[in-house]
Amino acid sequence: MRGTVRLQDLYERYHQRVQFMMIYIREAHPTDGWWMGGGITGFALDKLVPQASTSIRDPRTLAERRAAAGQCETALSYGIRTWVDDVDDAVNKAYAAWPTRLYLVGVDGRVVYHGGLGPFGFTPKALGKAIEALG
Amino acid sequence: MSQTIHDRKQGRSWQNEHDAKAPRVGDLAPDFELMDVTGEHRARLSQYRDDKPVALVFGSFT
Fold this sequence. Notes:
The complex is a heterodimer.
Chain A: H1 4-14, E1 19-24, H2 39-48, H3 62-76, E2 82-84, H4 90-95, E3 101-105, E4 111-114, H5 124-133
Parallel strand pairs in A: 1-2
Antiparallel strand pairs in A: 3-4
Helix pairs in contact in A: 1-5
Chain B: H1 8-19, E1 33-36, E2 42-44, E3 54-59
Antiparallel strand pairs in B: 1-2
């Protein structure tokens, strides 16, 4: 996922006052979909985002998605527990989250920050500012 | 099951369709209950209400 290093920084800095939830959703670039593992794009992806995988098929079942999520959680290992959206993509759709997105929900259950559409709207720095603004 | 997205055009179409209904600042965040990667632990967004703010980080391995 784009920006994961800085996301880890946020987690390390704020995890005692903010609950972080990683929600594993539909694959962004699976081997049987919009794959980016080949050619110059694959080479660039490997250099720029080495923590991303280019060898996962889009899961058909919740068990398959859990398996992919487990690989991701192990590979990134930045301490945030991963919760897995079902293959009906209900949570993904409710938050328009694909391929990546950030939200901050206040203690009253209302949205206090929503990131732009991913991948370019995925900006952990903006999430950090929103957390700071909570006081 | 939803369909796999095969290209930029499909991806943009999906985003536009669902972003129009996504929560904005001040809206109540849609509640959900999900299991972890083991299928043994369960969490609900609303369990943190009146306790802690929640950062939701959506993404995948690819």
